[in-house]
Amino acid sequence: MKVALITGITGQDGSYLAELLLEKGYEVHGVKRRASSLNTDRIDHLYQDPHHPNQRLKLHYGDLTDAMNLTRIIEECQPDEIYNLGAMSHVKVSFDTPEYVGNVDGLGPLRILEAVRLLGLEKKTRIYQASTSELYGGMPENKNEKGFYDENSPFHPRSPYGVAKIYGFWITKNYREAYNMFACNGILFNHESPRRGETFVTRKITRATARIALGLQEKIYLGNLDAKRDWGHAKDYVRMMWMILQAEEPEDWVIATGKTTTVREFVRLSFKEVGIELAFKGSGVNEKAFVVSCNNKQFQLELGKEVLSIDPSYFRPTEVDLLIGDPTKAKEKLGWVAEHDLVSLVKDMMQSDVKLMQKQKYLEKGGYHNNTNID
User: Fold this and answer.
1) Is 131 helix (H, G, I), strand (E, B) or coil?
2) Mind giving me the DSSP string for 151-172?
3) What is the pLDDT of residues 180-196, one digit of tens each?
């Protein structure tokens, strides 16, 4: 039985990856930070009584800032594969906590690589390092001839998060070349799901849309609606992570859909899933969105109602306007193809958040009969 160790197992990617590996017969070990709350809701459905003879998911308290702790966990687990998904991954927040981000996202990968080397596991253990499209910084002159970012595009990070991740990228590559380790970077473009954190823009949009449709919230405040992102489904991306560590040779890979969408369009698609059509008026910080029609009798808002405004505080100090990746290498060399498109991703997120907000409405107001269907 293969053994895998996942840092950040309680996050979006970690939970989906744990599901995938358990389905493939792995024994899965996860690293979670100690907190006053359990924060395991994304993996609770996978976790049985630790004394159960068939329990193949095991959790360890740890932190990417603690080298001795990581070394002990790796020595105990003797993993065949390590997936380093743990990080402080909120770009906007990284401007407020730059030193912490550097310690976790930059030096964290180094601590794992060095632990594997010192324990003499460099021939046994394959390592996946979660890298990011924020390495590119959206610089138009660095795109390839097709207008995309690929594995050979130059980096120009535009946030403390991107700068920290670039150290993680290069130290992974350096250990691969210096010690002949099977260590790979997956340069992930934006990937979302119903398990996405509440403070990330896509989940903020779908949660707010559900609340507005159910009468729990008046409107949503966002930043740059013109920002474009290459949005995929986290399920597709964790499958690619696993494929990367099954390849014959260790390499670096772009994980992307090759399609880009504005934040504005993501908002429009989210409201469309509950039968609400919007009209956007104004420009820049004065842009707003208004209801023009409601085609689902269960979600009826006043026509002309303002449901979106711009809050300039949500703009980043250095804005990245466009990120789009080229997944050609992944498709041609590993046969990876995304199974979800943007419309199905938004539908998945909206169905989940409508159900979540129905429960919240029941708790807040009481007596609400859960019979809403957004189809």
Assistant:
1) strand
2) TTSPP---SHHHHHHHHHHHHH
3) 999 999 999 999 999 99
Helices (H) then strands (E): counts for the chain: 11, 15
Reference 131, options 4, 256, 20; nearest CA is 256
- Among 37, 159, 179, 202, smallest CA distance to 117 is for 179
What are the distances in angstroms from CA 52 to CA 19, 55, 354?
18, 5, 35
Strands 183-188 and 126-132: parallel
Q: Exposure pattern of 48-66 as b/e (b: 16+ CB <10 Å)?
A: eeeeeeeebbebbebbbee
Nearest alpha-carbon partner for 105 in 171, 49, 158 = 171
For the stretch 74-77, contacts whose Cβ atoms lie closer than 8 Å and that sit 24 or more positions apart, written own/partner, are 74/5, 74/112, 74/115, 74/116, 74/119, 74/121, 74/125, 75/115, 75/119, 77/3, 77/5, 77/29
Q: Which residues are catalytic?
A: 132, 134, 161
Above 70 in pLDDT, residue 370?
Answer: no
Q: Where are the beta strands (DSSP E) in 159-318?
A: 183-188, 191-192, 220-222, 228-229, 232-233, 253-255, 261-262, 276-281, 288-294, 306-310
If pLDDT is split at 50, 70 and 90, which confidence band does 372 have? low
Over residues 45-70, mean pLDDT:
82
Paired sense of beta strands 276-281 and 288-294, if any = antiparallel
